[in-house]
């Protein structure tokens, strides 16, 4: 059994066990609707604003979506900007759910609730009412087909995602993932440095975290999680070399499923090298 010790805790983190207990269908039935996750309003408003505010600066070719589970919300918003999205996750079950949606299988999850909310927010912020869900969904399908689906293990030395072509992506995005797959703050910081290397000059990173969290419950199993706070996240980005770091936070209620009390969205740019 491959286990690593959770910092400041006697509880081992077994990442293979976390994957084994992943229940994609249950997640999609309970966490993929706006009424069930109040923080989606905060997330959608900020992601739309972030992409709009930096539209002139962000490249439009390739994005890496790293560890968003089966959730397509962030990729949907990114698809308005980029032509290719490499969708990477640790769970083959999550990737299968995404593939089912791309292939429009009858049992694929219906994302219309969150997608319609994203489009409404886009209309509100930009005044552009020409965006239609069907066309936007087609862009997303094409973008993921162009980028591909890929499984990763953040702790593997030969991880194909993190050891991919340098200076390749315009955008790297990761949502509520690194605190689950990085067993120490050192590995977390090293992963941020690998993201930096994957980005082109002037490339853009978007991270979402639940702060001050020590556990989450999935499929009736309680898993320890790497606690992150704002200082750790900002330091990791700064140490990696990122600039123009900005973050937005919102307090959230703690419950018996997860004890993170703040949701954070942080963005930064890889600087242009001097000629």
Structure description:
There is one protein chain. This protein has 10 helices and 11 strands. With 275 residues, it is an alpha/beta fold. A 7-stranded mixed β-sheet has the order 5-4-3-6-7-11-10, with helices on both faces. A two-stranded antiparallel sheet has the order 1-2. A two-stranded antiparallel ribbon has the order 8-9.
Descriptors:
alpha/beta, disordered N terminus, 10 helices, two-stranded antiparallel sheet, 11 strands, 7-stranded mixed sheet, 275 residues, Rossmann fold
Question: How do the strands and helices of this protein lay out in sequence?
Answer:
Blueprint: E1 4-5, E2 12-13, H1 15-20, H2 24-31, H3 39-53, E3 62-66, H4 73-78, E4 84-89, H5 92-102, H6 112-126, H7 133-147, E5 149-151, E6 169-175, H8 178-181, H9 185-198, E7 199-211, E8 215-218, E9 221-224, H10 230-240, E10 243-251, E11 262-269
Parallel strand pairs: 3-4, 3-6, 4-5, 6-7
Antiparallel strand pairs: 1-2, 7-11, 8-9, 10-11
Short description:
With 275 residues, this protein is α/β, with parallel strands linked by helices. The protein is 38% helix and 23% strand. The chain has helices at residues 15-20, 24-31, 39-53, 73-78, 92-102, 112-126, 133-147, 178-181, 185-198, 230-240; strands at 4-5, 12-13, 62-66, 84-89, 149-151, 169-175, 199-211, 215-218, 221-224, 243-251, 262-269.
Radius of gyration: 18 Å
Question: Which segments are poorly predicted (pLDDT under 50) over 5 or more consecutive residues?
Answer: 1-20
What strand line-up does the widest sheet have? 5-4-3-6-7-11-10
The count of β-strands is: 11
The end-to-end span amounts to 49 Å
Summarize model confidence as the mean pLDDT: 88
């Amino acid at each position: 059994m491959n286990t690593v010790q959770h910092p400041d805790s006697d509880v081992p983190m077994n990442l293979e066990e976390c994957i084994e207990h992943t229940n994609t269908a249950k997640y999609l039935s309970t966490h993929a609707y706006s009424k069930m996750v109040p923080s989606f309003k905060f997330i959608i408003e900020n992601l739309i604003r972030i992409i709009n505010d930096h539209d002139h600066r962000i490249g439009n070719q390739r994005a890496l979506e790293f560890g968003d589970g089966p959730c397509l919300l962030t990729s949907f918003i990114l698809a308005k900007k980029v032509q290719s999205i490499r969708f990477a996750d640790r769970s083959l079950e999550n990737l299968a759910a995404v593939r089912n949606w791309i292939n429009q299988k009858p049992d694929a999850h219906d994302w219309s609730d969150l997608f319609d909310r994203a489009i409404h927010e886009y209309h509100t912020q930009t005044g552009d009412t020409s965006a239609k869900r069907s066309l936007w969904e087609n862009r997303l399908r094409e973008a993921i087909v162009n980028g591909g689906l890929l499984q990763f293990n953040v702790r593997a030395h030969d991880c194909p995602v993190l050891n991919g072509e340098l200076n390749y992506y315009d955008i790297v995005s990761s949502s509520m993932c690194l605190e689950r797959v990085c067993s120490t703050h050192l590995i977390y910081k090293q992963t941020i440095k690998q993201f930096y290397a994957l980005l082109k000059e002037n490339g853009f990173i978007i991270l979402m975290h639940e702060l001050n969290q020590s556990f989450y419950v999935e499929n009736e199993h309680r898993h320890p999680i790497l606690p992150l706070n704002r200082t750790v996240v900002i330091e990791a980005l700064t140490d990696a070399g990122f600039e123009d770091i900005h973050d937005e936070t919102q307090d959230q209620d703690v419950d018996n499923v997860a004890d993170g009390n703040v949701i954070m969205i942080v963005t930064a740019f890889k600087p242009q090298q001097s000629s």
